[in-house]
Amino acid sequence: MRRGLSLLEILVVIAAIGVLMAILLPALSGTRRSANEIKSLANIRTIAQTFDAYIDEHGAYPAASSGWALHPDWAEPPAAIIWRDVWLTDRLWPIVMHDLAPWPENYQSWLSPGADSERFTSLWSGQGYTVTSTGLTSYRYSNSFLARPRVWSGSGGDYDESLIRAARRADVRQPSQKVLLYDTEVAYLTPEQMERNPRRAVGLADGSASIRRDAEAVEPVANPLRSGYTPRMYHDTPNGTHGVDVR
Cα separation of 184 and 10, whole Å? Predict the structure, then answer.
């Protein structure tokens, strides 16, 4: 007659399962993270292709204080969406480039893996169509492409709105080290994971993309055209498009 398991044997089995779980869960988490990083990199490369098409058509990187987009439920001509701050192009670039990449067909590639895919449906509210402050995309476009490099040179002198001008390809001196876009949300990571090991997908001006640690980014400098504004990595690049964000 077979005997049953003793309490001690059961406890040993439970302990063994616990050890296996402790070993396997971090590995599974790492695999999931790697898969999401690859997807985020693929999104950035897709966006970079749209930027290239925009530059080919307009001769410069996008920089605007107004634009339009067509809601998929609207059959009539598109509504205007207006904002008054050119620096908001960093999060509203999908509107500027709507003709090249209409958002109904493309917005999924503009979101970090795990980000809220319903955010586009909340853009229009009330009688006017007010863009929410969250931005359209997880991938922020560097502000340093929106003005002349002297803005971030620290050279002093007069700084005024005349320095705002969309950069051209020739303005980017080291495209393999100048960040064009980056995953600002990294939505697939928890706040604790970001605090413990902050890294994200970045896209460079040469069209490449890679995973970079925040600690490796070049220290940002003040933008004198934005008083009271805290400089941000990848946006406020020393010497703007003449400078570099990554080494």
Answer: 48
Count of domains observed in the chain = 1
Q: Is residue 79 part of a domain?
A: yes
Mean pLDDT in consecutive groups of 10 residues from the start of the chain, 247 residues: 61 71 58 88 96 95 75 51 83 86 85 82 49 72 96 87 94 97 93 85 96 94 92 96 96
Predicted TM-score (pTM) of the model is 0.81
In a domain, 16, yes or no: no
Domain range holding 146?
41-242
Is 232 inside a domain boundary?
A: yes
